[in-house]
Amino acid sequence: GAARSPPGAVRECAARCAKAAVSAAPTDAASTLTAIYDAINARDVDTAMRYVDDDCLYEDLNFPEPWRGADAVRELFDESVKGIPEDLLFVVDDITGDDLSCGVLWHVELAGVPFPNGRGASFYRLSPESRKLVYARDVVEPPFKPGAAAFVIIRAVAPLVARTLKKAEGGTSDQPDVAAASLSPVGLALGAAAAFYTFALILSPPDMYAPGEPIWMITPETVKEVTDESINFFFVNIFLQDLGIGLQADAHHPVSEGLFNLVNAYSFMFLPVLLRSERSRGMNTYAWWSVQMFLTNAVMMSYLCKRELTLEDRRADPETPKEAGRHALLSKAFGATGGAMGAFCLWWTLAARPELGGDIQARVEHLQYLLGNDRVAFAFAADMVIYSAWQVILIGELDKQRGRAAPAWMRYTPFFGLAGYLIAEEP
């Protein structure tokens, strides 16, 4: 392939470009922002700040609050160049605009290779008086892309938001779906819980509510590990690899792999429980559950929230099934599969891959390290606790629905109690 310039040469070139831009005195928004990008790539914050107005407002949507004023923007620029490889550069893909404003499409490269999840789009405006940057907004490519699940969540939440806003304004909504939503205390509490879970375990800054990096700071190594563990879902691909026909996916620490699949097995077993509930009639439970398998309680709590808020509406709808399905065979199959997978996960965590996992003490120490430093592992541990609570609540719901109580161990023993309930209990 073509020879690449060494990192020092790349940085030296960026520095020359930044100095040239200063001497060329940019005349419009595009040339001004090009000069700022060149200065940041040269790690020359002083030069970049020559183009920033004292009253600049800089919004980076990765952060909850904007940077106000030149001193705050300098702090942002300083942080953006501190401690990162010198050959990590911002590359402008396209820039267009007019005299005082422009939009920029850009991506990040490391040693000439596009950085994973490193694309972005930005809008900039110059002050008519100072001809310097007075407003900026950056939107960065999210490392996690929910795809169609985003529309599912929007459809669930939008009616509640619209109705709440109407009530706050003292009006009423003329939208049938919104008007029909019942603002039950349980539904509102579930919605608040889903929002807090999403913020605390997925979006919050490091060590605010959970250890490790949030999704907007996720490292390529973490993305790689989660991708590999997803490919190795329920360990099927690992055994196919042994036969020479599996997909490419690296091996990871057995504690991480075991925890990942244990949480997925717990998610897996909730499908028949939700389907059998009278309160779920008319809900698209299969679609919600399929997303829950990947997003766990962020989706589970959103589903239960919508289930409560739309309960009376669905009961009044003539197209809603009159009874919940029995799903006896599905329950037994899911209980047996989930329970067996849970037992296998425990064995895998404690004994598999000795070359990576070591002895029991080393595995326990690794688990302690993950829970104290890794956001994904911490969230999975939280999921196990939260799922245990849903197990108690939802089995109690089914007991009340059918008029008889399941054995206490099935309701209160996390995971394996649910597996036993699905295998042994009839609707």
What would a concise description of this structure say?
The protein is globular and about 80 Å long. Helix content is 58%, strand content 12%.
Structural notes for this entry:
The protein has 427 residues and is α+β, with helices and mostly antiparallel strands. 58% of the residues lie in helices and 12% in strands. The chain has 19 helices and six strands. It has helices at residues 7-24, 29-41, 45-49, 70-81, 149-168, 176-180, 185-203, 220-231, 236-242, 254-276, 285-295, 297-309, 311-316, 328-351, 354-357, 360-373, 375-402, 408-412, 416-424, and strands at residues 52-60, 67-68, 88-97, 101-110, 113-126, 133-140. The protein has a six-stranded mixed beta sheet with strand order 2-1-6-5-4-3, with helices on one face. β1 and β2 (67-68) form a beta hairpin. α10 packs antiparallel against α11, α11 (285-295) packs antiparallel against α12 and α16 (360-373) crosses α17 (375-402). The model is unreliable at 1-7 and 173-182 (pLDDT under 50).
Helices and strands in order:
Blueprint lengths: L6 H18 L4 H13 L3 H5 L2 E9 L6 E2 L1 H12 L6 E10 L3 E10 L2 E14 L6 E8 L8 H20 L7 H5 L4 H19 L16 H12 L4 H7 L11 H23 L8 H11 L1 H13 L1 H6 L11 H24 L2 H4 L2 H14 L1 H28 L5 H5 L3 H9 L3
Parallel strand pairs: 1-6
Antiparallel strand pairs: 1-2, 3-4, 4-5, 5-6
Helix pairs in contact: 1-2, 5-12, 7-12, 10-11, 10-14, 10-17, 11-12, 14-19, 16-17
